[in-house]
From TrEMBL:
SUPFAM superfamilies: Methylated DNA-protein cysteine methyltransferase domain, Methylated DNA-protein cysteine methyltransferase, C-terminal domain. HAMAP family: OGT. The keyword Electron transport does not apply. This is Methylated-DNA--protein-cysteine methyltransferase. The active site is at residue 136. Its main location: cytoplasm. It comes from Aequitasia blattaphilus. Keywords: Cytoplasm, DNA damage, DNA repair, Methyltransferase, Transferase. It comes from the Bacteria. Belongs to the MGMT family. This enzyme catalyzes only one turnover and therefore is not strictly catalytic. According to one definition, an enzyme is a biocatalyst that acts repeatedly and over many reaction cycles. Residues 2-75 form the Methylguanine DNA methyltransferase ribonuclease-like domain.
Length: 169
């Protein structure tokens, strides 16, 4: 059974999904690859411990604190390749960025390959099912451009500016 609840954040309504023990999804309303397209039926339920922990984490994050990702039981659903990419995303420090090319290099190294496609990495980053917490917004193009955020480039810009301490809100 998959449960869901909503959280009203400074960047819009977020849907949280859980298997009752782990957070398996966190999507921005209207985001590409939203969880409701993935799960046919999610049951509304707020009184789940992981939802309370996640909402507290998000409150701290949006209050400018730097909550530790390890405080939450995360269990994103995806292929082994995607999970490996998402693990790399979890290592990106708050307020810092990494390029798709750098992630591709790290993945090639992990897999014992000479190279890895940055486009394949981009697909995995784009399908991150736990937005904000697994910080796919911290991935940028090689030239420093803000590319490819399923929640929209303006939200990506807002999150990066928030982490730099320069957001206007």
């Amino acid at each position: 059974m998959i449960y869901r609840t909503d959280y009203n954040s400074p960047i819009g309504i977020m849907t949280l999904a859980s298997d009752e023990e782990n957070l398996i999804g966190l999507w921005l309303k209207g985001q590409k690859y939203h969880g409701e397209e993935i799960f046919d039926e999610m049951i509304e339920k707020e009184d789940i411990l992981v939802f309370a922990k996640t909402k507290e984490w998000l409150k701290n994050y949006f209050d400018g604190k730097k909550p530790d990702i390890k405080l939450l039981p995360l269990a994103p659903i995806g292929s082994e390749f995607r999970k490996e990419v998402w693990e790399i995303l979890c290592e990106i420090p708050y307020g810092e960025t990494i390029t798709y090319k750098e992630i591709a290099r790290k993945m090639a190294e992990k897999m014992g390959k000479p190279t890895m496609s940055a486009q394949a990495v981009g697909g995995a980053v784009g399908h991150n099912p736990i937005s904000v917490i697994i910080p796919c917004h911290r991935v940028i193009g090689t030239d420093g451009s803000l590319t490819g955020y399923a929640g929209g480039i303006e939200k990506k810009r807002h999150l990066l500016e928030h982490e730099e301490g320069t957001d206007s809100n």
